[in-house]
Amino acid sequence: MHKVQSVKYGEEVCFNGIFMLKASSSGLELGNSTWTIQSPRASITYLPSSVFVSAHALDFDYSSLKENDVILFSDFSSLNDTDEDNEKLNEHSMDETDSSLCRYSVFRDDGADADERVPFVCNNDDITEEIERISFICSCIFGAVKSGGSVLIPIGRLGVILLLLELISEMLHSSSLKVPIFVISETAEEIFAFTNTLPEWLCKSRQEKLFAGEALFGHVELLKEGKLFLFPHLHSKGLLAAWKEPCIVLCPHWSLRLGPAVHLLRRWHADKRCLLVVEQGNGAELSLKPFMPLAIQVLECSFLSGVRAGKIDPLLGVLKPKFVMLPEGLKSRCSIKGVPWSFLYYSKGKTIELSNLREDIEVHLATDVAFRLQPRQLNETTAVARLRTKLLVSNGRYQLASAEKQPDQSKR
């Protein structure tokens, strides 16, 4: 861990003197970041799985990503989009003024400067669908518990867990049900404490709750009321005393091959009143084979996990890169007609060479060197001067510094 350096939101850090790195919110989870890497010769955007608008994390930050030379697009979630979503991709123009782009984003003055405009996603369809999906899961949980069954949720997505607990909290408050909720994980206490220590990573509505002195998430009230219990292990002291069925349990691991989920599923797999909630795409059918035959109800859910294929083109139209590096799997899904940037496609073990991104190099002249210059005028617009310097690289910039130490004037 001595080689790991933590970085605050929006903080610029220098690596090896030549690279400046900056983390911005990707919108997917608390702390999940897009990265801008600046050097004297190029600027690179690393774009992982991202969400434009989030119900818990700070929204996707466009400002630091615009007009960088290269975008390394590593959001693989769109590879799982339906064919219908993928067919929409070629229908969108790259022009910001085109109505198809306005369908997804709009430039709105943020009030700081009339000339500075930050793109916002104009519709919240994705996050609305996400909340509706989680509400449906909660209704299924409510039905299972009401029938006397317990619910097992081996999902590791923090944002999904927070929203689930929030909606479950509302469900319990509006009903007469008294059902204990257990989060069984070695990192449970640390993770829930983590949600209260990073206000800069929260979405605007959560930040407003913070300033108003309200609880940021629904699990806070559940903990105060003694309805939510956090334990590191199934054999933890106090768990047996608090245990009561039916109950709701959130625990690792989604693979159903390790962790508390294995033992609990063996306990409940033959009870048709119980419910298992798993994430789609994680090989649920294969994961469940050791527990066959199953009587437990199984609910497979997909959650918003990145940029949809139909929104890649509008996003690139906003960011305006020179080169876009995409996974090979997206090669057939991206429109390349009439766009001002070039596409490159990468795969595992493949080396990609980029042409020279910047013909001109910006060099900064040290102040002491500049004062010693004795320029000679060649014509009205041009002057030349001799200088002896050394070329340094510091904080991502080339600098001409004095080549030798000047004699101390006080000793003359």
Automatic annotation (TrEMBL):
Entries under SUPFAM superfamilies matching the protein: Metallo-hydrolase/oxidoreductase
GO terms under cellular component: cytoplasm; integrator complex
Subcellular localization, as worded in the UniProt entry: Cytoplasm; Nucleus
Pfam families assigned: Beta-Casp
Keywords (A to Z) from UniProt: Cytoplasm, Nucleus
InterPro entries from the UniProt entry: Beta_Casp (IPR022712), Integrator_9su (IPR027074), RibonucZ/Hydroxyglut_hydro (IPR036866)
Location, primary (coarse class): cytoplasm
Keyword Nucleus belongs to the record: yes
BP GO annotations: snRNA processing
SMART domains for this protein: Beta-Casp (SM01027)
Entry protein name: Beta-Casp domain-containing protein
